[in-house]
Design goal:
The chain is α+β, with helices and mostly antiparallel strands. It contains four helices and ten strands; from the N terminus they run αααββββββββαββ. It has three domains: about 35 residues, no CATH class; about 170 residues, no CATH class; about 40 residues, no CATH class.
Amino acid sequence: MLVIQPLPLHGGPSAALFGAFIPLALLLHASSAQARFLEHRRVPAAEPAQKHQLLLAKSYDPGYFHNYGVRSGPPQEDMGSYGDDGSEHDATMPRNMFTSDTMAYNFPFLDNMMPVAPMDSVKHGDGAYGMDAKYVSEYLNPDGFPGVVGKGCMCKAPDGPTEKIECHCGKESDNDHYTWLKDTPVTGTKNYTLTPADISYRAGNYWEPNVRGGIASPADSLPAGSYPNQAAGDRIWPLPASAAGDRIGIKYARYLDQVHDRAQECDTVSKRCTVPCKPGDAVTGVLGNTHVDA
């Protein structure tokens, strides 16, 4: 309620009468404004129950992940170990042929051939109670000496302590090249296979876990030190294990590994680019969304 004290007016009876109406006019104007304010603040009438049910059925953003907008440049992917940019790995090498004792031979323009777009990064989340997704870079632990060619072996576990392991291996060739083998049990038998393994993590096929697409959901993610997952007594680092004189800076190892993988994408002998056929067969070549007669 607005209360206004009338001011003294000079000018005779007419001025006094006019002055008497001023408080009343202002009071009516204030009441009218208050009524309009209440009209705008009026609570809407109740809607049908069906509409309320539709509103409740709609999904909503829990706020686990926020978009921070465009971030400058491709983000630096983890290298050597999850959460590190490769500095920890390179710090274990006293010197190498690329950096020597100074930075004179450091090549700052060597880039990642398979970067992650800034807007695709999931490392800037603020998930509730630490419930953030993790992205495990494809070449977290690259192999500076890539090359996995060979037939592998089929082996049988011995029945007793005095017996030997029996293995039947594929035909060797001059092109065979591998350092590590992956053993895979054959279900229901005592047999297991030994196949040449690519030890690049996660681009290879040796280490676990195999993070599909590189994205580990919040509930499935492991501690940072568990990529790749190793038993405490078997843990080795840096990965892959190699002689001190053979080790190079991790970004150079990643570049060599990526170039090798690109060269193996399609050739005349790769399983991904060849198919058994004979004259007269109808063969279709599929290149992305393009299908052509081959």
